[in-house]
Amino acid sequence: MRLSPVGPMLAGAGAARRCTHCKRDRASKSCACSRCGRELRTSVVLRSPEDTMRSWQAVGQQKFLVEDDVVHWEVCGNISARELTTIFEEGVHIQNARGYALFCINISGDWSFPLEARRALAQFHRTHTAVGATAIVGISANKALFIDLVLRGIAKVSGHRPNTRFFGAMQEAAVWLDDARVQLHERLRTQKQ
Question: Taking the model in full, what pTM does it have?
Fold first, then answer.
């Protein structure tokens, strides 16, 4: 199976499940491990481009895919304020429905994050409290530092710093997002009690 150019997609319902406690795959359809009785979580599943490319959408130069609780974004060229806002609004819809949203941002090739887009990002975080996690894949060390500085500025403006990590490989990012999902589910369940 060939991997998608934007990497693996996180699995949705019906995917193989693994125990958060013993880390073993279970073929059980229940929410508990048949071995130790602990909660199960969805595991990372790699999908071919044929499975996912039909659902990809374009806004300007950017491509994105909404899959379950994740917005996958393939960054291409200059990011405009309209593109950024449109893609982040998809995350708002997910967050309104689930209580959180995850982003997997794949950066390859030439791209830029002009002042207009940075201002739009700051404004977005002034008016929205992001609950979730963002994995950014394929970014150079210099640009990661730049993005980190932008996120620090957003934290000063909005009072909240988005949970963002940088990764060299899509598989690492997918595992981290999977773990973040489990933590977010636990936090939401605790808040309801």
Answer: 0.71
